[in-house]
């Protein structure tokens, strides 16, 4: 098995078996995410794998229907300084395509801690992330219809696009905040303020 590479796997199950062996090499043997940021393997080319904007993973043009496989792949994802996303093991690194963001935030819960609102998100691959200084939310407005797209930093440089239904719930929690003398529509979580847009442009949120 020592000479096997990700690219020699003939299907998603074979690929998962290799990644599973790599994922077993967790820091201290504890049940945690593999330390992909500490690995520096050689680049072995691109793999025919794509993560679509709706969070669906495709391998060789076919959707990966088994959620445990998708979860496994997600644990060895890394986005490097070149802006590209890779599957990384201790012995190899292969590029994959990401249409928008690698993860999708599909659920949000609101709680209060020390008198402050805390927003916690669940992603389509099972990550649970609290919006905070370490996991900020950024907002992008794009397209002819001025579509609002929030992104939550999950880990490293990997983000989750907040799904449309959750985005509507998130926006309902917004408030107007003075930021450097400008009235901004913003979201609060864990003591942090995440600006969405100038309050004067708030009306664009009503457009789909």
What does it look like?
The chain is mainly beta and 208 residues long. The protein has 2 domains: 13-98, duf1285 like domain (duf1285 like fold), CATH 3.10.540; 103-206, duf1285 protein (duf1285 protein fold). Helices cover 14% and strands 43% of the residues. It has 3 helices and 15 strands. The strands form 3 sheets. A 6-stranded mixed beta sheet has the order 3-2-1-6-5-4. A 6-stranded mixed beta sheet has the order 9-8-7-12-11-10. A hairpin with a 2-residue loop joins strand 13 (175-179) and strand 14. The termini are far apart. 30% of the residues are buried.
Top-tier CATH class of the largest domain: Mainly Beta
Report the C-alpha radius of gyration, rounded.
19 Å
Total discrete domains: 2
How many H/I helices? 3
Report the sheet-strand fraction.
35-45%
The largest sheet is: 6 strands, mixed
Order of SSEs? HEEEHEEEEEEEEEHEEE
Proportion of helical residues:
10-25%
CATH architecture of the largest domain: Roll
Mean pLDDT: 86
The CATH topology name of the largest domain reads duf1285 protein fold
- Low-confidence spans: 1-10, 25-30
Q: What structural class is derived from the secondary structure elements?
A: mainly beta
Q: How would the global form be characterised? A: elongated
CATH superfamily of the largest domain: duf1285 protein
State the total count of DSSP E strands. Answer: 15
Give the CA-CA distance, first to last residue.
Answer: 51 Å
Major β-sheet strand ordering: 3-2-1-6-5-4
InterPro entries: DUF1285, DUF1285_beta_roll_sf, DUF1285_C, DUF1285_N
Pfam families: DUF1285_C, DUF1285_N
Protein name: DUF1285 domain-containing protein
Organism: Pseudorhizobium flavum
């Amino acid at each position: 098995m020592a000479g096997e590479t990700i690219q020699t796997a003939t299907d998603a199950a074979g690929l998962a078996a290799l990644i599973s062996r790599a994922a077993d090499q967790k820091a201290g043997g504890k049940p945690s995410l593999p330390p992909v940021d500490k690995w520096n393997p050689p680049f072995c080319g691109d793999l025919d794998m794509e993560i679509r904007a709706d969070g669906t993973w495709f391998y060789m043009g076919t959707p990966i229907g088994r959620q445990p496989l998708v979860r496994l792949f997600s644990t060895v994802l890394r986005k490097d300084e070149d802006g590209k996303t890779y599957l990384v093991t201790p012995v190899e690194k292969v590029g994959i395509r990401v249409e928008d963001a690698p993860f999708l935030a599909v659920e949000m819960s609101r709680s209060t801690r020390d008198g402050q609102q805390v927003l916690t998100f669940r992603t389509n691959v099972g990550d649970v992330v609290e919006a905070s200084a370490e996991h900020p939310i950024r907002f992008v407005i794009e397209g002819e219809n001025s579509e609002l797209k929030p992104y939550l930093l999950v880990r490293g440089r990997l983000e989750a696009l907040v799904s449309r239904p959750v985005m509507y719930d998130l926006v309902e929690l917004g408030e107007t905040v003075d930021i450097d003398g400008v009235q901004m529509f913003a979201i609060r979580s864990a003591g942090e303020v995440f600006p969405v847009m100038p309050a004067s442009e708030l009306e664009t949120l009503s457009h789909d």
